[in-house]
Amino acid sequence: MNTFKKRYISALLAASFTVAPFAQAFQEGDILVRAGLATVVPDDATSNVFVGSDLGFGLSVDNNTQLGLTFAYFFKDNWNVEVLAATPFKHDVNFAVADPLGTGNQLGEVTHLPPTVTVNYYFMGSTSAFQPYVGAGINYTIFFDEEFTDTNSGAGLQDLSLDDSLGLAFQLGADYKIDKTWFINGAIRWIDIDTQAEFNLSGTPGRVDDIQIDPMVYTLSVGYRF
């Protein structure tokens, strides 16, 4: 074997050892940190609004995108526990029919934090940079800063309050490794978020008994492996 071939083969072997960590599977003890965009898309089915009697219309909740953060720890090869966090999501709450009170279609807005813990299983072994996974867990959604629009407040709507929610969460996602430490992540979650709303209309108690937000949550992020 001539000198050029020896050098060429040696270079290939060196490159293979350099790239080998790129395909290394996540394993017990690894910590993953991700940051990117998280979009909450509610499937907003609600019961009707009651103020003394059924007013005959419900509510809708719009989408919102915020900074999403996830932290995951592999307690076993192919298995991790993950926490989803984010900056607070703020949603417009609208009447499900056009302007029923003559105050505009937007009723108000609510802010919430949806911390979610899931246990995830990774399918692929050490030979693939593409690492898909599925997970299931628990979500606790905290509502705060609920408020009516100025127009609705002026019409006598006051004291909007939404109950916190505890429910199941499921997700499907994948990490794609750029190198040994950096990777790109995409995930889709379905979260069971059900709540109730209470308010006052010129001193008369009002309520919405069942607000099923049940959103799809889409995340796209960059991650780092420790």
Provide key terms for this protein.
Outer membrane protein OmpW; six-stranded antiparallel sheet; 226 residues; eight-stranded antiparallel β-barrel; 17 strands
Structural summary, described in words:
- It comes from Alteromonas sediminis.
- One of its GO terms (biological process) is transmembrane transport.
- Keywords: Signal.
- 10% of the residues lie in helices and 62% in strands.
- With 226 residues, the protein is mainly beta.
- The chain has a single domain (22-225), classed as Porin, CATH 2.40.160.
- The strands form 2 sheets. Strands 1-6-7-10-11-13-14-17 form an 8-stranded antiparallel β-barrel. Strands 2, 3, 4, 12, 15 and 16 form a 6-stranded antiparallel beta sheet that branches.
- The chain starts with a helix and ends with a strand.
Seen as an oligomer or otherwise, the chain set is single chain
> Would you list the SSEs in sequence order as H and E?
HEEEEEEEEEEEHEEEEEE
The main sheet comes to: 8 strands, antiparallel, barrel
- Count the strands? 17
What structural category characterises the helix and strand content?
Answer: mainly beta
User: Largest sheet, order of strands side by side?
Assistant: 1-6-7-10-11-13-14-17
Q: Tell me, rounded to a whole number, the average pLDDT.
A: 85
Beta-strand content bin: over 45%
CATH fold group: Porin
Low-confidence stretches: 11-21
By CATH, the architecture is named Beta Barrel
What is the terminal separation in angstroms?
42 Å
Radius of gyration: 24 Å
Signal peptide: 1-25
Pfam family, one: OmpW
Protein name: Outer membrane protein OmpW
InterPro entries: OMP/PagP_B-barrel (IPR011250), OMPW (IPR005618)
